[in-house]
Amino acid sequence: MSDHTSKQFDAEMEAIRSGVLSMGGLVERQVGRAIEALGEDEDSRLIDAVGADEREINQMQVTIDQQCTQVIARRQPTAVDLRLIMMVTKIVNDLERIGDEAKKIAYKSAAVRGNDRLTRIRYHDVVRMAGGTQKMLRESLDAFARLDINAAARVVEEDDDIDVAFNAVMRQLISFMMEDPRTIGAALEVVFIAKSIERIGDHSKNISESVVQVVMGKDVRHASAEQIRAEVAGE
Amino acid sequence: MVTPMEARTQTTTNATMLGSARAGANAPVASEAPPPPLKAESHNLSFYYANKFQALKGITMPVHEYCVTALIGPSGCGKSTYLRCFNRMHDLYPGNRYEGDIVLHPDNTNLLAHDVDPIEVRMRVSMVFQKPNPFPKSIYENVAYGLRVRGVSNKNLLDEKVETSLRGAALWDEVKSRLHEVGSNLSGGQQQRLCIARALATDPEILLFDEPTSALDPIATASIEELISELKKKVTIVIVTHNMQQAARVSDYTAYMYIGELIEFDKTDTIFFKPRRKETEDYITGRFG
Protein backbone atom coordinates (compact mmCIF):
# COMPACT_ATOMS: atom_id res chain seq x y z
CA MET A 1 0.00 0.00 0.00
CA SER A 2 1.31 3.42 -0.89
CA ASP A 3 1.99 6.03 1.77
CA HIS A 4 -0.24 8.78 3.04
CA THR A 5 0.68 12.36 2.21
CA SER A 6 0.77 12.74 5.98
CA LYS A 7 3.71 10.70 7.25
CA GLN A 8 2.41 11.07 10.79
CA PHE A 9 -0.79 9.28 9.75
CA ASP A 10 1.32 6.47 8.28
CA ALA A 11 3.24 6.19 11.52
CA GLU A 12 0.04 6.01 13.58
CA MET A 13 -1.46 3.28 11.37
CA GLU A 14 1.79 1.33 11.44
CA ALA A 15 1.92 1.53 15.24
CA ILE A 16 -1.57 0.03 15.43
CA ARG A 17 -0.78 -2.72 12.95
CA SER A 18 2.44 -3.75 14.66
CA GLY A 19 0.72 -3.49 18.04
CA VAL A 20 -1.83 -6.08 16.90
CA LEU A 21 0.95 -8.33 15.66
CA SER A 22 2.89 -8.22 18.92
CA MET A 23 -0.31 -8.76 20.89
CA GLY A 24 -0.99 -11.72 18.59
CA GLY A 25 2.50 -13.07 19.27
CA LEU A 26 1.91 -12.84 22.98
CA VAL A 27 -1.44 -14.61 22.75
CA GLU A 28 0.14 -17.36 20.66
CA ARG A 29 2.79 -17.87 23.33
CA GLN A 30 0.14 -17.95 26.03
CA VAL A 31 -1.95 -20.54 24.18
CA GLY A 32 1.23 -22.59 23.59
CA ARG A 33 1.99 -22.56 27.31
CA ALA A 34 -1.58 -23.46 28.24
CA ILE A 35 -1.52 -26.45 25.92
CA GLU A 36 1.86 -27.45 27.22
CA ALA A 37 0.39 -27.36 30.73
CA LEU A 38 -2.03 -30.06 29.56
CA GLY A 39 0.94 -32.38 28.98
CA GLU A 40 1.97 -35.26 31.20
CA ASP A 41 4.84 -33.71 33.11
CA GLU A 42 3.37 -30.39 34.06
CA ASP A 43 5.16 -27.51 35.69
CA SER A 44 3.20 -25.11 37.88
CA ARG A 45 5.46 -22.27 36.74
CA LEU A 46 3.86 -22.61 33.29
CA ILE A 47 0.47 -21.86 34.78
CA ASP A 48 1.83 -18.76 36.53
CA ALA A 49 3.35 -17.59 33.24
CA VAL A 50 -0.01 -17.94 31.52
CA GLY A 51 -1.50 -15.66 34.18
CA ALA A 52 1.26 -13.08 33.69
CA ASP A 53 0.75 -13.10 29.90
CA GLU A 54 -2.92 -12.48 30.52
CA ARG A 55 -2.28 -9.18 32.29
CA GLU A 56 0.05 -7.97 29.56
CA ILE A 57 -2.46 -8.93 26.86
CA ASN A 58 -5.26 -7.02 28.59
CA GLN A 59 -3.05 -3.94 28.75
CA MET A 60 -2.27 -4.19 25.02
CA GLN A 61 -5.95 -4.49 24.18
CA VAL A 62 -6.66 -1.24 26.03
CA THR A 63 -3.71 0.55 24.42
CA ILE A 64 -4.56 -0.51 20.85
CA ASP A 65 -8.23 0.36 21.28
CA GLN A 66 -7.19 3.78 22.52
CA GLN A 67 -4.92 4.31 19.52
CA CYS A 68 -7.79 3.36 17.19
CA THR A 69 -10.15 5.84 18.90
CA GLN A 70 -7.55 8.58 18.53
CA VAL A 71 -7.08 7.94 14.81
CA ILE A 72 -10.85 8.05 14.29
CA ALA A 73 -11.13 11.30 16.25
CA ARG A 74 -8.19 13.05 14.66
CA ARG A 75 -7.94 11.68 11.12
CA GLN A 76 -11.46 10.67 10.12
CA PRO A 77 -10.08 7.60 8.31
CA THR A 78 -11.88 6.39 5.19
CA ALA A 79 -11.91 3.31 2.93
CA VAL A 80 -9.03 0.90 3.64
CA ASP A 81 -7.87 2.91 6.68
CA LEU A 82 -11.37 2.90 8.12
CA ARG A 83 -11.82 -0.81 7.46
CA LEU A 84 -8.50 -1.60 9.11
CA ILE A 85 -9.25 0.49 12.21
CA MET A 86 -12.74 -0.95 12.62
CA MET A 87 -11.49 -4.51 12.24
CA VAL A 88 -8.49 -4.01 14.52
CA THR A 89 -10.85 -3.12 17.36
CA LYS A 90 -12.61 -6.43 16.75
CA ILE A 91 -9.41 -8.42 16.30
CA VAL A 92 -7.90 -7.24 19.60
CA ASN A 93 -11.16 -8.21 21.24
CA ASP A 94 -10.92 -11.72 19.78
CA LEU A 95 -7.28 -11.94 20.82
CA GLU A 96 -8.11 -10.93 24.37
CA ARG A 97 -10.84 -13.56 24.52
CA ILE A 98 -8.40 -16.18 23.24
CA GLY A 99 -6.17 -15.15 26.12
CA ASP A 100 -9.03 -15.74 28.55
CA GLU A 101 -9.63 -19.20 27.12
CA ALA A 102 -5.92 -20.00 27.39
CA LYS A 103 -6.00 -19.04 31.05
CA LYS A 104 -9.01 -21.30 31.63
CA ILE A 105 -7.22 -24.20 29.94
CA ALA A 106 -4.12 -23.69 32.06
CA TYR A 107 -6.03 -23.54 35.36
CA LYS A 108 -8.25 -26.51 34.45
CA SER A 109 -5.20 -28.54 33.53
CA ALA A 110 -4.10 -28.34 37.17
CA ALA A 111 -7.51 -29.57 38.34
CA VAL A 112 -7.43 -32.38 35.81
CA ARG A 113 -4.05 -33.59 36.93
CA GLY A 114 -5.04 -33.62 40.57
CA ASN A 115 -7.67 -36.19 39.66
CA ASP A 116 -6.38 -39.76 39.26
CA ARG A 117 -9.63 -40.87 37.64
CA LEU A 118 -8.50 -38.94 34.64
CA THR A 119 -5.72 -41.36 33.86
CA ARG A 120 -8.52 -43.55 32.57
CA ILE A 121 -9.57 -40.85 30.14
CA ARG A 122 -7.11 -40.74 27.32
CA TYR A 123 -7.43 -37.20 26.37
CA HIS A 124 -4.86 -37.10 23.61
CA ASP A 125 -7.75 -36.35 21.24
CA VAL A 126 -8.17 -33.09 23.13
CA VAL A 127 -4.48 -32.34 22.80
CA ARG A 128 -4.60 -33.06 19.06
CA MET A 129 -7.56 -30.71 18.76
CA ALA A 130 -5.52 -28.10 20.60
CA GLY A 131 -2.80 -28.46 17.96
CA GLY A 132 -5.40 -27.72 15.26
CA THR A 133 -6.60 -24.53 16.91
CA GLN A 134 -3.04 -23.38 17.56
CA LYS A 135 -2.43 -23.70 13.84
CA MET A 136 -5.61 -21.74 13.10
CA LEU A 137 -4.53 -18.94 15.42
CA ARG A 138 -1.09 -18.74 13.82
CA GLU A 139 -2.54 -18.76 10.30
CA SER A 140 -5.12 -16.10 11.11
CA LEU A 141 -2.40 -13.81 12.46
CA ASP A 142 -0.29 -14.47 9.35
CA ALA A 143 -3.33 -13.66 7.21
CA PHE A 144 -3.66 -10.35 9.07
CA ALA A 145 0.04 -9.54 8.76
CA ARG A 146 0.01 -10.08 4.98
CA LEU A 147 -3.66 -9.14 4.45
CA ASP A 148 -3.93 -12.51 2.69
CA ILE A 149 -7.58 -13.40 2.05
CA ASN A 150 -6.80 -16.86 0.71
CA ALA A 151 -5.08 -17.78 3.94
CA ALA A 152 -8.05 -16.27 5.83
CA ALA A 153 -10.49 -18.42 3.85
CA ARG A 154 -8.46 -21.55 4.73
CA VAL A 155 -8.71 -20.77 8.44
CA VAL A 156 -12.49 -20.56 8.16
CA GLU A 157 -12.50 -24.00 6.51
CA GLU A 158 -10.32 -25.43 9.26
CA ASP A 159 -12.82 -24.29 11.88
CA ASP A 160 -15.30 -26.81 10.49
CA ASP A 161 -12.75 -29.58 11.22
CA ILE A 162 -12.30 -28.34 14.78
CA ASP A 163 -16.06 -28.42 15.30
CA VAL A 164 -16.13 -32.03 14.06
CA ALA A 165 -13.25 -32.95 16.38
CA PHE A 166 -15.00 -31.25 19.32
CA ASN A 167 -18.16 -33.28 18.72
CA ALA A 168 -16.09 -36.47 18.58
CA VAL A 169 -14.41 -35.63 21.90
CA MET A 170 -17.81 -34.97 23.44
CA ARG A 171 -19.16 -38.32 22.30
CA GLN A 172 -16.11 -40.05 23.69
CA LEU A 173 -16.43 -38.30 27.06
CA ILE A 174 -20.13 -39.08 27.25
CA SER A 175 -19.45 -42.76 26.80
CA PHE A 176 -16.79 -42.67 29.53
CA MET A 177 -19.27 -41.04 31.86
CA MET A 178 -21.98 -43.58 31.05
CA GLU A 179 -19.65 -46.51 31.56
CA ASP A 180 -18.35 -45.30 34.89
CA PRO A 181 -20.18 -42.47 36.68
CA ARG A 182 -17.16 -42.00 38.96
CA THR A 183 -15.36 -40.35 36.05
CA ILE A 184 -18.03 -37.67 35.65
CA GLY A 185 -16.19 -35.06 37.72
CA ALA A 186 -12.95 -35.49 35.83
CA ALA A 187 -14.66 -35.78 32.45
CA LEU A 188 -16.49 -32.51 32.98
CA GLU A 189 -13.17 -30.75 33.50
CA VAL A 190 -12.03 -32.14 30.17
CA VAL A 191 -15.28 -30.97 28.57
CA PHE A 192 -14.51 -27.43 29.70
CA ILE A 193 -10.98 -27.67 28.33
CA ALA A 194 -12.25 -28.97 24.99
CA LYS A 195 -14.82 -26.18 24.87
CA SER A 196 -12.11 -23.56 25.49
CA ILE A 197 -10.00 -25.03 22.71
CA GLU A 198 -12.98 -24.97 20.39
CA ARG A 199 -13.64 -21.32 21.31
CA ILE A 200 -10.06 -20.41 20.40
CA GLY A 201 -10.81 -21.85 16.96
CA ASP A 202 -13.95 -19.70 16.73
CA HIS A 203 -12.05 -16.54 17.67
CA SER A 204 -9.32 -17.34 15.13
CA LYS A 205 -12.05 -17.74 12.54
CA ASN A 206 -13.43 -14.32 13.54
CA ILE A 207 -9.99 -12.79 13.07
CA SER A 208 -9.80 -14.29 9.58
CA GLU A 209 -13.24 -12.97 8.72
CA SER A 210 -12.11 -9.53 9.86
CA VAL A 211 -9.14 -9.82 7.48
CA VAL A 212 -11.56 -10.50 4.60
CA GLN A 213 -13.53 -7.40 5.62
CA VAL A 214 -10.35 -5.26 5.65
CA VAL A 215 -9.30 -6.38 2.19
CA MET A 216 -12.61 -6.78 0.37
CA GLY A 217 -14.99 -4.60 2.36
CA LYS A 218 -17.35 -7.59 2.59
CA ASP A 219 -18.92 -8.72 5.82
CA VAL A 220 -18.61 -12.52 5.75
CA ARG A 221 -19.24 -13.16 9.44
CA HIS A 222 -22.23 -15.41 8.97
CA ALA A 223 -21.40 -16.90 5.59
CA SER A 224 -20.39 -20.56 5.21
CA ALA A 225 -16.82 -21.60 4.46
CA GLU A 226 -17.86 -22.36 0.85
CA GLN A 227 -19.41 -18.92 0.41
CA ILE A 228 -16.30 -17.24 1.76
CA ARG A 229 -14.11 -19.35 -0.48
CA ALA A 230 -16.24 -18.30 -3.48
CA GLU A 231 -16.14 -14.60 -2.52
CA VAL A 232 -12.39 -14.69 -2.11
CA ALA A 233 -11.92 -16.50 -5.42
CA GLY A 234 -14.01 -13.80 -7.12
CA GLU A 235 -11.74 -10.98 -5.91
CA MET B 1 -35.92 4.78 6.82
CA VAL B 2 -36.25 1.03 6.72
CA THR B 3 -38.38 -0.40 9.51
CA PRO B 4 -37.01 -3.43 11.37
CA MET B 5 -39.74 -5.53 9.76
CA GLU B 6 -38.75 -4.44 6.23
CA ALA B 7 -35.09 -4.99 7.04
CA ARG B 8 -35.91 -8.52 8.13
CA THR B 9 -37.78 -9.30 4.93
CA GLN B 10 -35.05 -7.76 2.79
CA THR B 11 -32.42 -9.80 4.57
CA THR B 12 -34.30 -12.99 3.85
CA THR B 13 -34.70 -12.13 0.18
CA ASN B 14 -31.04 -11.27 -0.23
CA ALA B 15 -29.86 -14.33 1.63
CA THR B 16 -32.06 -16.50 -0.60
CA MET B 17 -30.45 -14.88 -3.61
CA LEU B 18 -27.06 -16.09 -2.40
CA GLY B 19 -28.64 -19.50 -2.76
CA SER B 20 -26.57 -21.93 -0.73
CA ALA B 21 -28.24 -24.80 1.07
CA ARG B 22 -25.76 -24.69 3.95
CA ALA B 23 -26.15 -23.00 7.31
CA GLY B 24 -24.60 -19.85 5.88
CA ALA B 25 -27.57 -19.38 3.57
CA ASN B 26 -29.34 -17.42 6.28
CA ALA B 27 -26.43 -15.05 6.63
CA PRO B 28 -27.58 -11.48 7.17
CA VAL B 29 -26.35 -9.14 4.45
CA ALA B 30 -26.57 -5.36 4.17
CA SER B 31 -29.85 -4.44 2.52
CA GLU B 32 -29.77 -2.89 -0.92
CA ALA B 33 -32.57 -0.51 -1.94
CA PRO B 34 -33.24 0.12 -5.64
CA PRO B 35 -31.67 3.40 -6.87
CA PRO B 36 -34.00 6.41 -7.03
CA PRO B 37 -35.15 7.62 -10.47
CA LEU B 38 -32.90 9.77 -12.62
CA LYS B 39 -33.25 13.53 -12.63
CA ALA B 40 -30.55 14.16 -15.18
CA GLU B 41 -27.64 12.46 -16.84
CA SER B 42 -24.67 13.53 -18.88
CA HIS B 43 -23.76 11.46 -21.93
CA ASN B 44 -20.19 11.48 -23.12
CA LEU B 45 -19.84 15.10 -22.08
CA SER B 46 -16.64 16.82 -23.17
CA PHE B 47 -15.85 20.46 -22.70
CA TYR B 48 -13.25 22.70 -24.31
CA TYR B 49 -12.32 26.16 -23.08
CA ALA B 50 -11.76 28.92 -25.64
CA ASN B 51 -8.00 28.26 -25.54
CA LYS B 52 -8.69 24.70 -26.81
CA PHE B 53 -7.92 23.21 -23.39
CA GLN B 54 -10.04 20.11 -22.92
CA ALA B 55 -11.35 20.27 -19.36
CA LEU B 56 -13.80 17.34 -19.50
CA LYS B 57 -13.25 14.07 -21.30
CA GLY B 58 -16.40 12.18 -22.21
CA ILE B 59 -18.21 12.11 -18.88
CA THR B 60 -21.25 9.86 -18.60
CA MET B 61 -22.86 10.10 -15.20
CA PRO B 62 -26.35 9.95 -13.68
CA VAL B 63 -27.88 12.46 -11.27
CA HIS B 64 -30.56 10.82 -9.12
CA GLU B 65 -33.72 12.67 -8.22
CA TYR B 66 -34.04 14.15 -4.69
CA CYS B 67 -30.53 13.02 -3.88
CA VAL B 68 -27.31 14.89 -3.21
CA THR B 69 -24.56 14.05 -5.67
CA ALA B 70 -21.08 15.19 -4.63
CA LEU B 71 -18.22 15.78 -7.03
CA ILE B 72 -14.78 15.34 -5.49
CA GLY B 73 -11.28 15.36 -6.89
CA PRO B 74 -8.04 17.35 -6.74
CA SER B 75 -7.84 20.95 -7.97
CA GLY B 76 -8.08 21.18 -11.73
CA CYS B 77 -9.86 17.84 -12.13
CA GLY B 78 -12.82 19.52 -13.85
CA LYS B 79 -15.45 19.16 -11.16
CA SER B 80 -16.46 22.84 -11.19
CA THR B 81 -16.33 22.87 -14.98
CA TYR B 82 -18.68 19.91 -15.02
CA LEU B 83 -21.04 21.55 -12.54
CA ARG B 84 -21.18 24.74 -14.59
CA CYS B 85 -22.21 22.84 -17.71
CA PHE B 86 -25.51 22.10 -15.98
CA ASN B 87 -26.66 25.70 -16.11
CA ARG B 88 -24.75 26.77 -19.19
CA MET B 89 -22.48 29.06 -17.21
CA HIS B 90 -19.76 28.54 -19.79
CA ASP B 91 -21.92 30.25 -22.45
CA LEU B 92 -21.04 33.58 -20.83
CA TYR B 93 -17.58 33.40 -22.39
CA PRO B 94 -17.16 33.16 -26.17
CA GLY B 95 -15.24 30.28 -27.67
CA ASN B 96 -16.11 27.66 -25.06
CA ARG B 97 -17.42 24.48 -26.61
CA TYR B 98 -19.47 21.51 -25.39
CA GLU B 99 -19.66 18.02 -26.88
CA GLY B 100 -22.14 15.35 -25.83
CA ASP B 101 -25.26 16.24 -23.90
CA ILE B 102 -26.92 16.66 -20.53
CA VAL B 103 -30.46 15.32 -20.51
CA LEU B 104 -32.89 16.68 -17.95
CA HIS B 105 -35.75 14.34 -16.99
CA PRO B 106 -38.71 13.86 -17.12
CA ASP B 107 -39.08 15.93 -20.34
CA ASN B 108 -35.73 14.73 -21.77
CA THR B 109 -34.55 18.24 -22.60
CA ASN B 110 -30.93 18.40 -23.70
CA LEU B 111 -29.66 21.35 -21.65
CA LEU B 112 -26.80 21.88 -24.06
CA ALA B 113 -28.90 22.02 -27.27
CA HIS B 114 -28.52 25.24 -29.28
CA ASP B 115 -32.24 25.86 -29.39
CA VAL B 116 -32.52 25.74 -25.59
CA ASP B 117 -32.41 29.20 -24.00
CA PRO B 118 -29.68 29.37 -21.30
CA ILE B 119 -31.89 31.76 -19.28
CA GLU B 120 -34.61 29.08 -19.18
CA VAL B 121 -32.02 26.50 -18.17
CA ARG B 122 -30.90 28.70 -15.27
CA MET B 123 -34.49 28.95 -14.03
CA ARG B 124 -34.65 25.17 -13.83
CA VAL B 125 -31.08 24.65 -12.68
CA SER B 126 -29.92 27.22 -10.11
CA MET B 127 -26.46 27.78 -8.74
CA VAL B 128 -24.94 28.81 -5.42
CA PHE B 129 -21.32 29.90 -5.48
CA GLN B 130 -18.28 29.56 -3.28
CA LYS B 131 -18.34 33.07 -1.87
CA PRO B 132 -21.70 34.52 -0.91
CA ASN B 133 -22.49 37.02 -3.65
CA PRO B 134 -25.72 38.83 -2.81
CA PHE B 135 -26.70 41.63 -5.19
CA PRO B 136 -26.19 45.14 -3.79
CA LYS B 137 -29.89 45.31 -3.13
CA SER B 138 -32.24 44.68 -0.24
CA ILE B 139 -32.76 41.18 1.13
CA TYR B 140 -36.24 41.21 -0.39
CA GLU B 141 -35.06 42.28 -3.83
CA ASN B 142 -32.24 39.72 -3.83
CA VAL B 143 -34.77 36.93 -3.52
CA ALA B 144 -37.36 38.50 -5.84
CA TYR B 145 -34.82 39.13 -8.57
CA GLY B 146 -35.24 35.92 -10.55
CA LEU B 147 -38.99 36.29 -10.53
CA ARG B 148 -38.82 39.90 -11.68
CA VAL B 149 -36.56 38.81 -14.55
CA ARG B 150 -39.24 36.31 -15.39
CA GLY B 151 -41.76 39.18 -15.51
CA VAL B 152 -43.58 38.58 -12.24
CA SER B 153 -44.75 41.90 -10.81
CA ASN B 154 -47.75 40.91 -8.66
CA LYS B 155 -46.85 42.18 -5.20
CA ASN B 156 -48.73 39.45 -3.32
CA LEU B 157 -47.16 36.70 -5.36
CA LEU B 158 -43.69 38.18 -4.88
CA ASP B 159 -44.23 38.55 -1.12
CA GLU B 160 -45.33 34.98 -0.88
CA LYS B 161 -42.41 33.64 -2.94
CA VAL B 162 -39.87 35.69 -1.00
CA GLU B 163 -41.20 34.31 2.27
CA THR B 164 -41.30 30.66 1.16
CA SER B 165 -37.82 30.91 -0.36
CA LEU B 166 -36.37 32.51 2.76
CA ARG B 167 -38.09 29.89 4.90
CA GLY B 168 -36.73 27.18 2.59
CA ALA B 169 -33.25 28.58 3.13
CA ALA B 170 -33.80 28.66 6.93
CA LEU B 171 -33.29 32.43 6.99
CA TRP B 172 -36.82 33.83 7.37
CA ASP B 173 -36.90 34.07 11.17
CA GLU B 174 -33.60 35.93 11.20
CA VAL B 175 -34.50 38.54 8.56
CA LYS B 176 -38.28 38.88 8.50
CA SER B 177 -38.14 42.18 10.40
CA ARG B 178 -35.53 43.74 8.15
CA LEU B 179 -36.35 42.56 4.64
CA HIS B 180 -35.54 45.95 3.18
CA GLU B 181 -32.04 46.21 4.58
CA VAL B 182 -29.08 45.64 2.27
CA GLY B 183 -28.24 41.93 1.85
CA SER B 184 -24.52 42.48 2.33
CA ASN B 185 -25.12 43.56 5.95
CA LEU B 186 -25.82 39.94 6.88
CA SER B 187 -23.17 37.58 8.28
CA GLY B 188 -21.29 35.30 5.88
CA GLY B 189 -23.45 32.26 6.67
CA GLN B 190 -26.62 34.34 6.39
CA GLN B 191 -25.47 35.79 3.07
CA GLN B 192 -24.89 32.28 1.75
CA ARG B 193 -28.39 31.27 2.87
CA LEU B 194 -29.70 34.43 1.16
CA CYS B 195 -28.05 33.24 -2.05
CA ILE B 196 -29.70 29.84 -1.56
CA ALA B 197 -33.07 31.58 -1.07
CA ARG B 198 -32.44 33.55 -4.26
CA ALA B 199 -31.68 30.31 -6.09
CA LEU B 200 -34.82 28.66 -4.69
CA ALA B 201 -37.18 31.50 -5.69
CA THR B 202 -37.58 30.27 -9.26
CA ASP B 203 -38.54 26.76 -8.07
CA PRO B 204 -35.54 25.09 -9.66
CA GLU B 205 -35.46 21.35 -10.25
CA ILE B 206 -31.74 21.09 -9.66
CA LEU B 207 -29.63 23.16 -7.29
CA LEU B 208 -25.90 23.37 -7.99
CA PHE B 209 -23.50 24.17 -5.16
CA ASP B 210 -19.93 25.13 -6.00
CA GLU B 211 -18.01 24.77 -2.74
CA PRO B 212 -20.76 26.53 -0.82
CA THR B 213 -19.05 26.47 2.58
CA SER B 214 -15.38 27.04 1.81
CA ALA B 215 -15.66 30.67 2.94
CA LEU B 216 -17.67 29.89 6.08
CA ASP B 217 -16.77 28.98 9.66
CA PRO B 218 -17.62 25.49 11.02
CA ILE B 219 -20.92 26.53 12.61
CA ALA B 220 -22.18 28.27 9.46
CA THR B 221 -20.92 25.26 7.47
CA ALA B 222 -22.92 22.90 9.65
CA SER B 223 -26.06 24.99 9.15
CA ILE B 224 -25.60 24.97 5.35
CA GLU B 225 -25.06 21.20 5.43
CA GLU B 226 -28.20 20.79 7.52
CA LEU B 227 -30.03 22.95 5.01
CA ILE B 228 -28.81 20.80 2.13
CA SER B 229 -30.30 17.69 3.73
CA GLU B 230 -33.59 19.57 4.16
CA LEU B 231 -33.56 20.91 0.60
CA LYS B 232 -33.06 17.53 -1.02
CA LYS B 233 -36.61 16.58 -0.08
CA LYS B 234 -37.80 19.10 -2.68
CA VAL B 235 -34.94 19.58 -5.11
CA THR B 236 -32.13 17.52 -6.63
CA ILE B 237 -28.69 18.72 -5.54
CA VAL B 238 -25.25 18.52 -7.11
CA ILE B 239 -22.38 19.79 -4.98
CA VAL B 240 -18.69 20.36 -5.65
CA THR B 241 -16.57 20.23 -2.53
CA HIS B 242 -12.91 20.17 -1.61
CA ASN B 243 -13.83 18.91 1.80
CA MET B 244 -14.03 15.17 1.51
CA GLN B 245 -15.67 14.77 4.87
CA GLN B 246 -18.36 17.17 3.73
CA ALA B 247 -19.04 14.98 0.70
CA ALA B 248 -19.21 11.99 3.04
CA ARG B 249 -21.60 13.81 5.36
CA VAL B 250 -24.09 15.34 2.96
CA SER B 251 -24.17 13.27 -0.22
CA ASP B 252 -25.99 10.12 -1.32
CA TYR B 253 -23.81 9.62 -4.39
CA THR B 254 -20.21 10.59 -4.95
CA ALA B 255 -18.24 11.01 -8.16
CA TYR B 256 -14.46 11.05 -8.10
CA MET B 257 -12.92 12.98 -10.99
CA TYR B 258 -9.31 13.27 -12.05
CA ILE B 259 -7.91 15.42 -14.90
CA GLY B 260 -11.19 15.75 -16.72
CA GLU B 261 -12.25 12.14 -16.37
CA LEU B 262 -14.80 10.44 -14.18
CA ILE B 263 -12.80 7.79 -12.34
CA GLU B 264 -15.58 6.36 -10.21
CA PHE B 265 -19.22 7.03 -9.45
CA ASP B 266 -21.09 5.15 -6.75
CA LYS B 267 -23.14 5.41 -3.61
CA THR B 268 -21.31 7.58 -1.06
CA ASP B 269 -21.30 4.69 1.42
CA THR B 270 -19.45 2.55 -1.10
CA ILE B 271 -16.99 5.25 -2.15
CA PHE B 272 -15.94 5.96 1.43
CA PHE B 273 -15.88 2.35 2.62
CA LYS B 274 -14.79 0.17 -0.31
CA PRO B 275 -14.31 2.04 -3.59
CA ARG B 276 -13.76 -0.15 -6.63
CA ARG B 277 -10.84 1.80 -8.04
CA LYS B 278 -7.48 2.12 -6.40
CA GLU B 279 -7.17 5.74 -7.60
CA THR B 280 -10.31 6.61 -5.64
CA GLU B 281 -9.09 4.83 -2.55
CA ASP B 282 -5.74 6.62 -2.71
CA TYR B 283 -7.42 10.02 -3.04
CA ILE B 284 -9.97 9.65 -0.26
CA THR B 285 -7.51 8.11 2.19
CA GLY B 286 -5.04 10.94 1.60
CA ARG B 287 -2.48 8.92 -0.33
CA PHE B 288 -2.74 11.18 -3.34
CA GLY B 289 0.25 12.66 -5.13
Task: Give a short summary of the structure.
By secondary structure, chain A is mainly alpha-helical. Chain A has seven helices and no strands. The two termini of chain B are 39 Å apart.
Top CATH class of chain B: Alpha Beta
Give the number of DSSP strands of chain A: 0
User: Most extensive interface, residues per chain?
Assistant: A-B, 27 and 27 residues
Distance between the termini of chain B: 39 Å
- Fraction in beta strands of chain B: 15-25%
CATH fold assignment of chain B: Rossmann fold
* CATH architecture assignment of chain A: Up-down Bundle
Give the averaged pLDDT of chain A, no decimals. Answer: 90
* Oligomeric state of the chains present here: heterodimer
Largest beta-sheet characterization of chain B? 6 strands, mixed
CATH class of chain A: Mainly Alpha
State the secondary-structure class of chain B: alpha/beta
Low-confidence stretches of chain A: none
Helix/strand/pairing class of chain A, anyone? mainly alpha
